[in-house]
Design goal:
This protein is mostly helical and 243 residues long. The protein folds into 2 domains: 88 residues, Arc Repressor Mutant, subunit A (Orthogonal Bundle), CATH 1.10.10; 135 residues, Four Helix Bundle (Hemerythrin (Met), subunit A), CATH 1.20.120.530. The chain has 10 helices and 2 strands; from the N terminus they run αααββααααααα.
């Protein structure tokens, strides 16, 4: 019994599905960024399917799958006899990982950086205090590894990876399952901000002392000191953004 032809058909089917998925993802990205950038204004009606298919060079199947994705993320909605409408800005789900990433690519860089910074200033100092009060042994091992990687970093890339892991580890150590997903949410955009901050500093690891102060306060289980240290660290970050 030969399985050769069937395997080839299955392989071809898998490749076709992969291509379709990539096309759908790219089309969703292009449509979403056009909406987030303002090319299609809030409350406006998107062009008809035929026009969108021609504009983005995709099939009806790919286009409809992309539109379903944007519908699920709150960017658009379909209405019978009306068409597909861009939803008002306040309905956009900017707390979706993809939407936040897409928005960061088209928003005015300084404005977006400051908004992300405001979000961090509201969350991270309190999270550091919670981490100091309630970290587990496993969580502290992760935080220690991230801090050690910052200490030993030899270039911007190593520093940024360790810096990102440090902040994610603080959120993980706070033992609040509702805060932990925020790390996943901002991970992509935060990495870009950390990289920019490292490049703006005189040396890439200029904020090592501030990170160490956070680490030591958490290790000592001093919640107040951890909050203050994280607030101080974020103050340095704000200074680099605004500078």
């Amino acid at each position: 019994m030969s399985f050769g032809p069937k395997l080839r058909r299955d392989s071809s089917s898998f490749e076709e599905k992969t291509i379709q998925h990539d096309l759908h993802g790219r089309t969703a990205y292009l449509l979403a960024t056009a909406i987030l950038r303002g090319d299609y204004a809030p409350e406006s009606i998107l062009p008809r399917e035929a026009e969108l298919m021609e504009s983005y060079g995709v099939s009806r199947t790919v286009l409809r799958e992309a539109l379903r994705t944007l519908t699920s993320k709150g960017l658009i909605e379909s209405r019978p006899r009306v068409g597909t409408r861009v939803r008002p800005r306040q309905a956009w789900n900017l707390l979706d990982v993809d939407v936040l990433d897409w928005y960061s690519r088209v928003a005015e860089p300084m404005a977006f950086a400051l908004k992300l910074q405001e979000m961090r200033e509201m969350i991270e100092p309190y999270a550091a205090g919670l981490a100091a009060a309630s970290y587990t042994d496993d969580a502290f091992v992760e935080l220690t590894a991230a801090h050690s990687a910052m200490v030993s970093a030899r270039n911007v890339d190593e520093w940024v990876r360790a810096d990102l892991q440090f902040h994610l580890s603080v959120l993980s150590a706070c033992s609040n399952e509702l805060l932990i997903p925020l790390g996943t949410l901002i991970e992509r955009t935060l990495e870009a901000q950390l990289r920019l901050n490292a490049k703006r500093a005189e040396v890439f690891n200029a904020s090592l002392d501030e990170h160490t102060a956070v680490f030591e306060a958490i290790r000592a289980r001093n919640a107040a000191a951890a909050r203050d240290a994280m607030a101080g660290l974020l103050g340095v970050t704000r200074g680099r953004i605004e500078g």
